[in-house]
Amino acid sequence: MVQSLLALAPTLLVIAFFLLGPSNWSRHQSWARATTCAFVAAVALRYIVWRFTETVLPYPNDGANFYWVWFVFIVELLAFSEVVLFLILMSRYIDRSVEVDELARSFFARPESELPSVDIFIPTYNEPLDVLERTIVGALALDYPKDKLAVYVLDDGRRDWLRTFCEGRGAIHVTRTDNAHAKAGNMNNGLRVSSGDFIAVFDADFVPYRRFLRRTLPFFLDETIGIVQTPQHFFNVDPVQSNLGLENIWPDEQRLFFDEIAPSRDGWDVSFCCGSCSIARRTAVDMIGGFPTESITEDLLTTLSMLNKGYKTRYLNERLSMGLAAENLTGYFVQRERWCQGGIQTLYLHNGPLRGPGLSLFQRIMFLPMSWLVQYLVRFAVLLVPIVYLWSGALPLYFTNVADYVSNQIPLLTAYFLLMLWLAPTRYLPLVSTAVGTFATFRMLPTVLSSLVRPFGKPFKVTPKGSGNEANQFDAYTFTWIAAFIVVTAAGLLINIVPETAHIEGSFSTIAALWSGLNVVVLVIASLICFEKPRRLLQAFKLDEAADVDGSAGRLVSLSLDKAVVAVPTETRFKSTRVTLNLEGFAPLQAELKQVTQRRGDISRSGDQRRYYLHLHFDLRGFERDKMIIKLYTGNYSQEVPDIDKVAISVNLMLRAFGRTRTA
C-alpha cells in the first residue's frame, strides 16, 4: 500500500500544480504559458532520463529483443523531441487584434486615392460553379475602393462558362497555355498580368469577409512584413465531424492549429503562410522570384523564401473568411498527403530550413517538419508495442515493477493531457483527438516514408470539392487495418487471460492489458470515421431574424442559398404550397412549402404546440443569388462550434459504436 501511494505521488504533484497554478491563470498570458510548459518539460525530461538509465541501459544484449527495446526507445526519443519543440512553441501567445486596431487608424487616415491597389487571386482548376460563385462574388464585395481592387480568376481549366460568369460580374478571367507547376505556376501567371501593390490569395472554395482588407492591410505599414495570414474557418462539417456524428458538438479538425498553435508561432516570429486567406506584398514576392515552384506546398516555401530575404510573416487570429473543409475522406487524405509531402520536400531544397540563407538556428528548427515525421510513427508504435508483447513476450523495456512504471510514465501522460486541456479547452479532448490521429496513421505513415525516399515522386493533386463530389464512400483500406489491429490486440489479450493458453507472465502483463484495452477503445472510435455519411451541398446557417410568409410574421431560423426555415405561430394557415417569403433587403421570394415540422423544445407544459417550422425551397438566379451569397458568406454568420460538449460527445460515440456493432 505504501509503495503504491509513493508511486502515485508524482502524479498527485502534477495534478496539484495544475489545480493551484494554470487553472487560476489566463492561458493567453505568456508568463503563465512559459511556466506551465517549463513544468511539463521537466516532467518529460524526468521520464526520458528514467527510460534511458533504468529501462534501456540495463537491458542485456540477448539478441532480437535487445534491438526491439532500443527501437521503442528511439521512437520515444523522437516523440520527446517533438514534445519539447511543441512546449517551447506554445510557451508564447500573441493576439494581434489590438495592434491592428491602432495600425488601421493610421493606414486608413489617408485619402482613398492614396490607398494601395490590391489584386485578389482566385486560382482554380476543376471546381464547379456552385463553389466558385461564392468566392468570386465575395471577393468583388470586399469593403475597399473599387478602383483600387481587381479580382483575377486564374483558370487552369480554361472553361468558357467561367469566362462568361466572370465577365458578367466584373472579374478578370485569366488562362494560360499549360498547367506547368500547378497552383504556383498559375499564380505566377497571374503576377504577369496584374500590377497591384498587394496580392490576396483565396482558394476557389474560400469566401473573404467584406472586412478582410480593412483588417490585414494595416500590418504592411511595417516594410519588413511580407505576408499576413488569417485563419481558415469552414461553413461545412469536415468528414471527421460528420462520420463521428459530432457535427454540432466537436469543432473541425483544423481548429487546434489555426486557433491555438498559429498564434503561438506568431509569438516567436515563425508564423507561415497557409496559402488561402493570406495577403502578400508584391515587392516581397518579386524579390523571391515569384511564388516558388519547387514544392507542392508553395505557401510554406513562399514563407521560407521571404525569410531568406529578411521579410516576416504575421498571423491575425480573426475570422475573416469561410471556406469548404474537405467534404469526404478522399479529399481529406488528398489534402493532408499534399501538406505532408510538401513539408518534407522543404528538407531537400536550397531555400528550405536546412540550407536556406538568412535563417536563424531557431527558425531552422521550428520549420523542420517534425510533426509529419514523428507523430504517425509514434502512434503506430503505441498500437504495436502491446501486440508484440502479448504474442511474443518481447518486453519493450527493462521492467522492474508496476510502481516504478506508474511513478514515471503516468505523471507525464497526466501533465501532457492537462496542459492540452488548459491550452485548448474548446479544441481538444484526449480520447477523440487520439482516435483521429490513429485513424490517419494508416494512410499517412506510408506517405511519410515514401516522401522521405522520393520527396518529389508524387505530383500536385487538387482537393476535390463541390457538386460531383457527393458520393458516399467507405474507407475499406483504413478500416481493414483498424479491424486487423483490434482483432490481433483482442485475441492476444484473450489468449493470455485463459490460463491454458497464456504464455506470458510477470508484472508488466497488467500494464500491457490496460494499454491494450485503451488501444482497442481508441481503434473502435477511429473505425467509425471510416463510414461516410450523406452530406448536403449547400450548408444552412442558423439565424434569428424577422421574416414573413404571405404576410404572416415569423422568425427566420435557418437559411441557405436554396432553402429557408421560418418559425410561425401554430394558428398560421396557407391556402397553397406556393408562398411568398419576404426577407429584409430582398425582393419577395417565390418559394415552395415542402414540409412543416415541430420541435420538441417548442411543446409547452400544457402540451400545446407553440410554433410550426415551414421548410421553404426557392431558386435564386443572377444578382439576387449574388445578394444572398453576400448576406450568408461574407461575415455576418458563422458555423463555428464554440465549445466542446463532453457529455454529448461521449453519448454520441457510444451510440455510434453500439450501432455499428449491431449492424456488423
From TrEMBL:
It is a multi-pass membrane protein. It is an enzyme of class 2 (transferase). One of its GO terms (cellular component) is plasma membrane. SUPFAM superfamilies: Nucleotide-diphospho-sugar transferases. Residues 120-286 form the Glycosyltransferase 2-like domain. It is found in: Membrane. PANTHER family: CELLULOSE SYNTHASE CATALYTIC SUBUNIT A [UDP-FORMING]. This is Cellulose synthase 1 catalytic subunit. The gene is bcsA.
